[in-house]
Amino acid sequence: MREPEENGKVSVVRHSVVCEGSLTYGGKNTIYGPKVAVELANQLFRNSDREMTLVCSLNTKNQPLTIEIVAIGTVNACMVGVAEAFKTAIVSNAAGIMLFHNHPSGVCAPSNEDVQLTQRFIDAGNLLGITLKDHIICGMEGKYFSFKESGIIDGF
User: Fold this and answer.
1) Burial of 108 (0-12, 13-18, 19+ CB in 10 A)
2) Total-model pTM
3) Which of 122, 104, 125 is nearest to 49 (CA)?
C-alpha cells in the first residue's frame, strides 16, 4: 500500500477476490463433515514438503465460496496472521470458515501451538461474526485430525 497522500487526500480503493481456478470435491455442494473437507484441502497439500495453511470460506449452508493458501512455512512450522486469514472470508461475505494445515511428517496430532491458533481463530471469528466450523490437520494417505470431531470446538 502506498503512503498516505498529502493535503488531506485519501486513496479510494476497492477489494476483490480474484479466481485463480477451481477444485472438485465430494460430488455435493455442501461440506457436511471433515472427510469431504479433507478431500478438498488435500488437493492443495498434495506433494507439499512444507507446512501450509488454508482457509475455506463457507456460506450459511456450509457451501464453499473460496479456498485460499494463507501461509506457507517450513517443514515443521507455519506462521499464520489471523487478520490476513480472515480477509478473503470477509470480502466473500462468508458466514463461516474452515481452517486447514498440513503436517508433512504425516503425524496429525495437534501441537500446543495448533490449539492456541484454533482458539485465536475462534475468538476472532466471534468478533467478526464468522464462525470457525473446524480446524483440520491433514497428514498422509487421507489421515487427519479434526478439532470438531475431537470435541475441542463446536462445528457443523
Assistant:
1) middle
2) 0.88
3) 104
| Matching residue, cell 482458539 | 119
Sign of CA dihedral 146, 81, 128, 31: negative
Domains of the chain: 34-146 (3.40.140.10)
Q: E strands within 11-148? A: 52-58, 64-72, 96-102, 131-138, 144-146
Supply the pLDDT for residue 156. Answer: 52
Please count the other Cβ atoms lying within 10 Å of the Cβ belonging to residue 12: 5
Sole residue written with cell 464462525: 131
Under 8 Å between Cβ of 89 and 124: no
Place of cell 473446524: 134
What does the alpha-carbon distance between residue 49 and residue 103 come to, in Å, rounded to a whole number?
9
Cβ–Cβ under 8 Å, residues 134 and 146? yes
